[in-house]
Amino acid sequence: MGFGLGLVAVPxxxxxxxxxxPGAVQMVNLAMPLFTLASEWRRVEWRGVGFALLGRLPGSVxxxxxxxxxxxxxxxxxxxxxxxxxxxxxxxxxxxxxxGVTLASAGFVSGITGTATGIGGPPVALVYQxxxxxxxxxxxxxxxxxxxxxxxxxxxxxxxxxxxxxAAGATLVVPMALGFLASGPLRRYLDGGRARMAVLVxxxxxxxxxxxxxxxxxxx
Length: 220
What we know:
10 helices; globular; 0% strand; mainly alpha
């Protein structure tokens, strides 16, 4: 369903080792879309990708500044808040017209949240939710791949991409690939509605646990 990486992996990884974020998950964000593009790259809507990336560039700079000038605990709470917002947007689909302005705006928000927390998909996915299946998969995959590359480059420029994060992200590509391969055969056995709700519940629980963890750490 495409929820796992942003809504489950990000808060869990942040709880385990916040120092690796957001660089580690951006390595996976860079690799995962390649599986989709391998078969559906011809369906990419390049106009939409262009507008979204144009808006994302200044947003990525702001996201990098957040990483540089905020504490690791503040960023962890930001991750949790973004997960909750993403859950709300996913649970209640909103109708958003697909124009240059909305795409650039979604890209801008994606740049801030994606670079600062690793969760940059929901704003752009919201704009594309009414597109045809192959088009939305291919276009979002291309956007996610290029935007992850953009965020990694900016994080490296501001000195917030440690070698440990790159190594951890490269290691995580292996289980991600195994999960992607397993997802195809599993689709026929999983009920979409119940699985969707289960993921949203787990994501919300992870976000609330992350907030609680950082509140406890911050207590005198």
